[in-house]
Amino acid sequence: MAMVLNKVVPFGRSMDEYVKIFNLTNTDLNKRIIGIGDGPASFNAEMTRQGKRVVSVDPLYQFSSAEILQRFNEVVDNIINQMKATPNDWVWSYHQSPDDLRSNRIKVIQEFISDYENGKKSNRYVIGELPNLEFQNQEFEIALCSHLLFLYSDQLNYNFHLKSVDEMLRIAQEVRIFPLLTLMLKPSPHLDGIIEYYKAKDYRVSIEKVEYELQLGGNQMLKIARDVT
Predict the structure, then answer these.
(1) Phi, psi of 149 (to 5 degrees)
(2) Which residues pair with 144 in a beta bridge?
(3) I need a surface site. Which of 2, 3, 53, 123 has the fewest CB within 10 A?
(4) In the prediction, which pLDDT does 2 show?
(5) Distance between CA 127 and CA 158 in Å, rounded?
């Protein structure tokens, strides 16, 4: 799994963001959760501190904490400056401003870094990427995928999306994906096809509004669940 670090934007999100992004209830948080494409999120670290169990999967985890932090430091100001240059594309409700977002992302990556080596040793941070994951069938109750599928619709085609969702449903009873917009703030062209495909297979499919919005209009998540019989 060759990943070039200088192509990566290692932006992670906090547990509070995950809770709002994925409408996670207290009941959900006590389930077996896998986060796919978590990057340097502090979700795993914070959940672990509360005695809950999360496995995070990302090709980024082939790198050391020092390498990940260095890459973050290289890109953070550029990203924040891009956001300042496009003020109409963003909603400053959860994050109060671009500078507030920057300080939140710094806090998140510091929390991640402090947990990372221990988490790797206890198999909480696993190197892997869609559409093929090294986990058992139905090993998890919920699979979360944040800021990967649909967001990168221009880079990842429909077939990749379908294979990826299939794989997540293989390892988990339920899948939640956020956001449903592309990087260009447009609805993903793959979304309708994915919805129709799983509805035809009798999965429970719904689009839910969430409390979190940063991309303008990006306040919805897709939930796909198999009926547990």
Answers:
(1) -65, 145
(2) 35, 176
(3) 2
(4) 53
(5) 24
CA nearest neighbour of 223 among 25, 86, 62: 25
Strand order in the sheet with 125-126: 125-126, 54-57, 33-36, 140-146, 172-178, 220-225, 204-209
Q: Three-class SS of residue 6? A: helix
Please choose, from the candidates 131, 198, 193, 186, the residue with its C-alpha nearest in 3D space to the C-alpha of residue 154.
Answer: 186
Number of domains present in the structure of the chain: 1
Which CATH number does the domain housing residue 102 bear? 3.40.50.150
**pLDDT of res. 78:** 92
pLDDT of residue 16: 98
- Of 223, 32, 5, 66, nearest in space to 140 by CA: 32
Q: Are 119 and 125 in contact (CB under 8 A)?
A: yes
Burial 176-208 (b: 16+ CB within 10 A, else e): bbbbbbbeeeeebebbeebbebbeeeebebeee
Q: What per-residue confidence (pLDDT) applies to 3?
A: 59
Beta bridge partners of residue 192, listed in sequence order: none
Check residue 9 and give its pLDDT: 77
Ranges of residues in the chain whose predicted pLDDT is under 50: none
Q: Give, in order, the Cα–Cα distances in Å from 69 to each of 31, 61, 109, 129.
A: 30, 12, 7, 20
Range of the domain at 21: 5-225
Global pTM exceeds 0.90: yes
- Condensed to tens digits (0 to 9), the pLDDT of residues 20-45 reads 999 999 999 999 999 999 999 999 99
Rounded Cα–Cα distance for residues 12 and 113 (Å): 11
